[in-house]
Amino acid sequence: NTVPATFWAIYHLAAHPEALQVVRQEILDVLRAN
Q1: CB proximity list for 12: less than 8 A, separation 6 or greater
Q2: In the chain, where does DSSP find H-type helix?
Q3: Residue ranges of the domains in the chain?
Q4: CA–CA distance, 31 with 11 (Å, rounded to integer)
Q5: How far apart are CA 23 and CA 11, in angstroms?
Q6: What is the pLDDT at residue 25?
Q7: Sorting pLDDT into bands at 50, 70 and 90, what band is 14?
């Protein structure tokens, strides 16, 4: 089940650049906090 879930998550992020930006910002915030 991991492979299909990963595929659809990446597909969604590729189809919705605004979602990708939110994910990138969240990752950067977590990295800066540590």
Answers
A1: 19
A2: 2-15, 17-33
A3: 2-33
A4: 24
A5: 14
A6: 98
A7: very high
- One-letter identity of residue 34: N
CA angle 25, 19, 11 (to 5 degrees): 125
Would you place residue 4 in the very low, low, confident or very high pLDDT band (cuts 50, 70, 90)?
very high
Q: Give the Cα separation of 9 and 34 in Å (integer).
A: 25
Angle at 8 (CA atoms; ends 7, 13), nearest 5 degrees: 100
Non-local CB neighbours of 23 within 8 Å, separated by 6+ positions: 13
pTM: 0.69
